[in-house]
């Protein structure tokens, strides 16, 4: 896709992978809507911030309608990046944490994707990138709930790409290993460190996928740090 002037939405845009992706898409010439609950510290003429709870369908609809109006164009790129995780054995996991993870990590992908697909189909062009996790390909002790949500994102992505591929719409699922972000603030057993991947590297991979030839489709991408222990 030629990204110049294209409208992109990035969820979970205030920090980490989302923040880095917003910056990378702006550099690629996109008009970017940053969706998150916290304000995004980016000042750029082609960037608009929207306060959104992706786990709330009405909040998503309101932000979508405003985005299309403000950026004066159809959404060509959607980065479903918003996510959170809580650690704990399944038998003692707080029900509210389970529900919150599924609302944000899974329902959010559904709500956002469902809104952009019709126009992407009509335009015979669009790219949805879902940020899963290496936790979406395996099970991890103490992270059963989080792994469940990321497995769900994988299944959704695989089904959706087969639904829309003949309409010119790409769906890519990316599975990062450990990334040096604030995600691990809520995970007591892991501390973010410089041996993890950089958010900017994930963002560059995302932009590479989007800018690929129209008939070249990245379906699954797994990325990991080369030397996780330094």
Offer a few descriptive terms.
230 residues, 5 helices, 39% helix, 7 strands, single chain
How would you describe what is shown here?
The chain is of the alpha/beta class and 230 residues long. Helices cover 39% and strands 17% of the residues. It contains five helices and seven strands, in the order βαββαβαβαβαβ. It has helices at residues 16-27, 57-71, 95-123, 144-164, 199-210; strands spanning 7-11, 31-36, 47-51, 75-80, 126-131, 169-176, 220-223. Strands 3-2-1-4-5-6-7 form a seven-stranded parallel β-sheet, with helices on both faces. α2 (57-71) packs parallel to α3 (95-123). The radius of gyration is 17 Å and the shape is globular. The model has no long low-confidence stretch (mean pLDDT 95).
């Amino acid at each position: 896709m030629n990204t110049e002037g294209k409208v992109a939405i990035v969820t979970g845009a205030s920090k980490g992978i989302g923040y880095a992706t917003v910056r990378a898409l702006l550099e690629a010439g996109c008009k970017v809507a940053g969706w998150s609950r916290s304000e995004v510290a980016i000042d750029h003429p082609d960037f608009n911030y929207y306060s959104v709870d992706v786990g709330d369908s009405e909040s998503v609809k309101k932000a979508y309608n405003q985005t299309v109006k403000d950026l004066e164009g159809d959404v060509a790129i959607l980065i479903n990046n918003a996510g959170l995780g809580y650690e704990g054995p399944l038998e003692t996991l707080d029900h509210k944490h389970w529900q919150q993870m599924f609302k944000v990590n899974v329902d959010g992908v559904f709500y956002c994707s469902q809104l952009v697909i019709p126009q992407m189909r009509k335009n015979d062009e669009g790219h949805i990138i879902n940020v899963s996790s290496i936790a979406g390909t395996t099970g991890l002790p103490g992270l059963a709930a989080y792994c469940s949500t990321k497995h769900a994102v994988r299944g959704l992505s695989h089904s959706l790409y087969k639904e829309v591929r003949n309409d010119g719409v790409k769906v890519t699922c990316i599975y990062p290993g450990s990334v040096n972000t604030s995600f691990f603030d809520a995970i007591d057993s892991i501390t973010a460190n410089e041996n993890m991947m950089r958010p900017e590297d994930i963002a560059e991979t995302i932009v590479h996928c989007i800018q690929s030839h129209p008939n070249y489709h990245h379906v699954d991408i797994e990325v990991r740090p080369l030397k996780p222990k330094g």
